[in-house]
Amino acid sequence: MSKADFDMTGLEELSSKLMAAVEDFPGTAEKGLITIGNKLKKECVKNTPEGSTGKLKKGWKHKVEGYNGSELTYELVNRHPVHHLLNNGHVKKTPGGRTIGYYEGQHYTEKSVKAFEARELQPGLEKLAKKLLKKAGSARSMTSTSCRPYSRS
Q1: 77: which residues sit within 8 A by CB, 6+ positions away?
Q2: In angstroms, rounded to a whole number, what is the distance separating the alpha carbons of residues 129 and 122?
Q3: What sections of the chain are H helices per DSSP?
Q4: Mean pLDDT per segment of 10 residues, for the chain of length 153 residues?
Q5: What does the pLDDT read at residue 138?
Q6: CA angle at residue 12 from 6 to 14, to 5 degrees?
Q7: Would the CA dihedral through 86, 89, 90, 92 be positive or negative?
Q8: Phi, psi (5° rounding) for residue 68?
């Protein structure tokens, strides 16, 4: 086996077990997704410029949609009215409409996402996968023990 080859035995079985666990325990999957998403939110708040009032940092809101594992999403947005202007940049104009310059965007959202993906995403997903698989394993063992006939002696 060369350095570029990977051993993929058991990957399909693990993937199917993980998806089954997500379908069986959507509440656990949702809590894990919120935990991971809140780490992203903290990273975004940390990298957002302070501004004169500090309200730009407070504009970050999240929403979780979907209930089962295949449709579960975490959406993070900044509701502040000038967020997109500071993040992406904008043209500076006079009250008469003449263009006098351009404000280069700071791209703090993209920087935050890249930093989060590099540091927090993989360990968070691994932790969630372990928790789901552990819960699925314990649930299956509980159902197998609870289905045994009870006999009084």
Answers
A1: 60, 61, 62, 63
A2: 11
A3: 11-24, 26-47, 55-58, 83-88, 108-116, 122-146
A4: 48 69 76 91 94 90 79 90 94 95 95 93 88 73 40 43
A5: 63
A6: 100
A7: positive
A8: -95, 170
